[in-house]
Amino acid sequence: MTSLFALVDCNNFYASCERLFRPELEGKPVVVLSNNDGCAIARSNEAKALGVKMGDPLFQIQDIVKQHNIHVFSSNYELYGDMSFRVAETLRSFTPNVEVYSVDESFLDLGEFKFLNLPEYALNIKNRVKQNTGIPVSIGVAPTKTLAKVANRIAKKSPKANGCLVLTDSYHIDEALKRTEIGDVWGVGRQYAKFLINYGIATAYKLKHTNDSWIKKHLSVVMLRTVKELRGEPCADLELEPGKKKEICTSRSFGKPVKEFDELLEAASTHAGKCAFKLRKQKCCAKELTVFVHTNRFADTPQYFNSKKIQLPTASSSDLELIKHTKKALERIYKPGYLYKKAGVIVSDIIPGSNVQLNLLDKTDHGKEFTLMQFLDRITNKFGRDSVKVACQGIDPKKNWNLKREFISPCRTTRLNEILTIRI
DNA sequence: TCTGGGGTCCTAGGACCC
DNA sequence: TCTGGGGTCCTAGGACCC
């Protein structure tokens, strides 16, 4: 075996971030909610032990929350993003070969370190991340990414492992696979787990020994890669450069239901502006824009779901241009009389900004808009989000469409912007 | 009263062509 | 009533991930 990967996974990441600035909550149950304070999306170990499940709606766990004095937070993505960056920086002090896989997980290529004392090295990483950032992590080390995931799960759960597990010899790998339920394998979701259990394949170990052609026939080539990775055959390398997005979506549920077109437009244009910003950040333009709206599927009220895709005359990353077309699309799908719960904008057919073909029939001065957007981004950088807005995005934060965030913590690590915005 | 958001990849099936 | 075969491209939908 030549390859070696480590998966570093932050424990209960959002809950751990919130606790950093409230040390008195150490050892106490903490829950972080999704947008609009809807569901539990992160739980401290104490909250897990009390039976709070991932995705539980707040209103359904209200009793346990009160009874056990669980500390509840609205999600604060600015804080989590900043802490995520700091964790990644610490990991890069061990090796430049770090793939930031998600906000709370990174893969490290340890191929060149395999002659070191790996358990000690992993423990070293864990301790330094804790020391530098305050965030507790678990580390799994193995010859493939999928096996590193397996190792990580056990490292996190087993008290004996102390947060780190190295799986390099086949005996221990197989023992770990026997202890891993099929649904806990990376790449096996709910549907596939159900299907596989039906055929008597209930553990990772069984999956490892399933016939290739059967997998390909009944599942997919993606699953075949997973199986090969379980056998120690690497099918996925480290991705060092974050790939450019093929589509970008911004959407939110509303704090309260929205009826009127103008308010829906405020929400949709705000999402369009965010999409434009994300496009500029990766120096790209989009040729297609989709707007969608829908009512609350949980409510016992008339339901309506619709979307409209528009081809832009010229690929663009300008707030003004995307908002203009968002309005057009929204006019096509808006129906009065419904209680809308969510709106969103998706931009797709994304191309590099340098490849934009000008359209002779298009009257917009794209050069001018590009310069305007550069100024807009500079102002935003200096004075914080939402310092400048397009009028139809609205300025009243009390409007129904805005997020409900009753339990938000202050942005302690990135507060400079906030202070500047207030002063101006 | 209250139920997240943002992605990717693959496949099946339809439209169209020769 | 019978009514090709193969290729490409596109889209919708389903699966997965965090």
Label this structure with key terms.
424 residues, alpha+beta, Alpha-Beta Plaits, MutS, DNA mismatch repair protein, domain I, Dna Ligase, domain 1, 3 domains, five-stranded mixed β-sheet, 40% helix, globular, DNA-binding
Describe it:
The chain is of the alpha+beta class and 424 residues long. The chain has 3 domains: 5-10 and 79-230, 2-Layer Sandwich (Alpha-Beta Plaits); 13-78, 3-Layer(aba) Sandwich (MutS, DNA mismatch repair protein, domain I); 248-393, Dna Ligase, domain 1, CATH 3.30.1490.100. The protein is 40% helix and 20% strand. The strands form 3 sheets. It has a 5-stranded mixed sheet. A hairpin with a 6-residue loop joins β2 (30-33) and β3 (40-43). α12 runs antiparallel to α13. The longest helix is centred in the middle third of the chain and has 21 residues, at 261-281. The protein is globular and about 65 Å long. It starts with a strand and ends with a helix. Mean pLDDT is 90; it is low at 416-424. It binds a DNA duplex (18 and 18 nucleotides) through residues 33-39, 41, 55-60, 62, 75, 101-105, 186-192, 219-222, 243, 245-253, 256, 296-298, 344, 404.
